[in-house]
Cytoplasmic dynein 2 light intermediate chain 1 (Astatotilapia calliptera), 358 residues
Amino acid sequence: MPKISSDTLWELAAAEVHSRESGGAEERDGGEAVNERTVLLMGSKAGGKTSILLRCLDRDELSKPTLALEYTFGRRARGHNTPKDIAHLWELGGGTSLSDLVQIPITPVTISCLSVILVLDLSKPNALWGTMEKLLQAAQAHLERTSSQVQKSKSGVKRQTPSHSAARVLPKDYPDRELISPFPVPLLIIGSKYDIFQEFDSDKKKVVSKTLRFIAHYYVASLVFTSIKSESLISKTKSFFLHLAFGLERGKTVSSDPLKPLIIPAGSDSFGQIGSPPTVDVDITSLHAKNPKDLWKKVYERVFPPESTNEQRELKDPAKDPQYSEPQIDAMRAQKDQELEQYKRNAAKSWKGLELET
């Protein structure tokens, strides 16, 4: 008769967490290691993140608006009769309005095997820089805090936080080594809705393309333009995704023509190849920039002025968002809200009655 464990669910969960914090890959199926990676997907609101994720996972499902932060996973076998590696996939919805939620997937346990995918909507260039800047700053700030926690922890996480530096991606003699600022973890930037973007004026396309090349190279990130309407572009995007999620080899294709979809793996570009900021009716000498990145931002926003957005003021309670309406549930919720308000009024009256008696 099999032995029945007396451990509670919480004890088992605690043991699992301790096991993950104490070692590297988990062992299953005869002791063979199973690699687990975490990927955080964030970007422009309604920029196609879910659709891209489903296509990369070969899932034939209809995409739905992401509710705050959603989790899914992917598994992939390395060979016949071998355990499957696991990718934990977190998708942040709401554009920049819910950027604080990056703290959920970024933890001391996940930081050593974490990658970030930033999806930017090419069809809305006026919101592109602001979206990129705020989300990367939010993720980087929490990555740095988490890394400090790991280093200061007395019990410690035995796995070392990866030093994702230029030396890991670029040759030691790379000329831009002192000018770049590598993102703390592997980063992939995806320009979505290329089918709409390709109809833009050629000068404007050059501004967007060159700017994203600068940003990608500055952060030592890979850059790829895609469209869910193009099997060819999705296939190339999937190659980058599988590289981050499962460590598979990515394609070696490189395309830097600003009038074509960009495909630039990290480490294959340079500031010399990118050139100076595109000066479309902009006098660079009149711009008071603090550094090269600030200069590119000022030039870009001269061409694509940031739109005044109320995204931060948007309703953050999904229960009150019409797109998530459920008539029966909403009716029950309204009834309970009324009962709660009545209870509060009755309690207030009772309290006043007690005060009068005393």
Summary: Residues 41 and 113 are 14 Å apart (CA to CA). Confidence is low (pLDDT under 50) at residues 1-5, 156-169. The radius of gyration is 24 Å. The chain is about 40% helix and 15% strand.
